[in-house]
Amino acid sequence: MVKKQIDATAEQRILAAAKKIFLSRGLDGARMQDIADEAGINKAMLHYYFRSKDKLFEMIFEDIARHFMPRIVEIFESDQSLFQKIETFCGAYIDQVRQTPYLPVFVLSEATKRPSALMKKMFDNKKPPVHLFFQQVQKEIEKGIIKPINPVQLFLNMLSMCVFPFMAKPMLEHAAGITKKQFDALMEERKKMVPAFIIASIKK
């Protein structure tokens, strides 16, 4: 019993340390030695619990997905108006990626290599109710509230406008000299700007 409690405590320290290191340095920039140092253990013990950096990163991702993906499902299933849903989704997505900036890179990488495995990790192998959003878009078109648009294209616009700035962050820092503080301010502004832009583009 005591050993199991010690093991659990050590594992939680490692996961907390790994999350901190991954957040600040990303998957490629993080080293197992850095994680071991942050957790206050030696590298041998770290490898005893987690054999590879990729495996550890995967566990961190799954933990984030378990907390974040239900929020996305909740938004799609809510009785909010279409415009409110766009605003809520963009705000929630940008907030999450600000907390875990490595998430889009990991998702794109996994989606290319192992799409089925990614869906299982993110949604417990269940399809997210995106179809409800698509149906709502179609109804708004039929009512004459918004301009005709392919619901999938609308959803892609929402995703890409929220995600791309985080993918482009290194370029902004290098080419435009954007600091972390300035980037955070831009993303806070973007939470309002993106949905406003999207809504203006479809509203009649």
UniProtKB/TrEMBL annotation:
Pfam families: TetR_N. GO terms for molecular function: DNA binding. The keyword DNA-binding applies. Residues 8-68 form the HTH tetR-type domain. PROSITE patterns: HTH_TETR_2 (PS50977). Transmembrane segments: none annotated. InterPro entries: Homeodomain-like_sf, HTH-type_TetR-like_transc_reg, HTH_TetR, Tet_transcr_reg_TetR-rel_C_sf. Keywords: DNA-binding. Residues 31-50 bind DNA. SUPFAM superfamilies: Homeodomain-like (SSF46689), Tetracyclin repressor-like, C-terminal domain (SSF48498). This is TetR/AcrR family transcriptional regulator.
